[in-house]
Specification:
Largest sheet: 5 strands, parallel
Shape: globular
Oligomer: single chain
Order of helices and strands: HEHHEHEHHEHEHHH
Number of helices: 10
Strand order of the largest sheet: 3-2-1-4-5
Helix content: 55-70%
Strand content: 5-15%
Radius of gyration: 15 Å
């Protein structure tokens, strides 16, 4: 049986593109990591996310693909994200527990902004001191449970020996 550490590190190693939702665009922008994320991941989203943020400039380096919401006006943004992720067979980046659980049920990898922060450290895009500053800013705006922060710290501890 593969342990959770191996699963996460393998996901980080192979992560090259993902679909992102509104909340994660906002969080990553707030902690000044959206640009670094777009440089290291091919980010995809749906038009509903652009509309929800109201800030077109945030999407300069994010591909907008919307084959599902165009065909069914009843499909909400969250469902469009899941439909697109399933169609493209790519991970989901979201802060919304419902979206993340739908990704899990669909057999897709999923991440929140805290995990993307860990991913950027793992890839050597950011250094430990910048990680700490970004984590502090994330804690000021994110509404994660203590369990989520504990898991984020565990992942940090798994990857930090790589940088010693």
């Amino acid at each position: 049986m593969v342990d959770q550490k191996s699963i996460i590190l393998n996901q980080f190693e192979t992560l090259d593109r993902a679909i992102i939702d509104t909340s994660s665009v906002i969080y990553l922008s707030t902690i000044d990591l959206l640009k670094a994320t777009t440089k290291n991941l091919h980010l995809i989203t749906v038009a509903g996310v652009v509309k929800e943020t109201g800030e077109d400039a945030l999407f300069k380096n994010i591909e907008i693909v919307d084959i599902f919401s165009k065909t069914d006006a009843r499909t909400d943004t969250d469902q469009s994200i899941i439909n697109m992720a399933v169609h493209l067979k790519i991970p989901v980046i979201s802060e919304d527990k419902k979206v993340l659980m739908n990704a899990k049920r669909a057999g897709l990898a999923y991440f929140n902004s805290l995990m993307i922060l860990n991913f950027l450290l793992y890839k050597g895009v950011i250094q430990k001191d910048f990680y700490g500053k970004s984590l502090h800013r994330l804690k000021q705006s994110a509404h994660y449970s203590e369990d989520v922060y504990r898991f984020g710290k565990t992942v940090y501890e798994w990857i930090s020996p790589h940088f010693s």
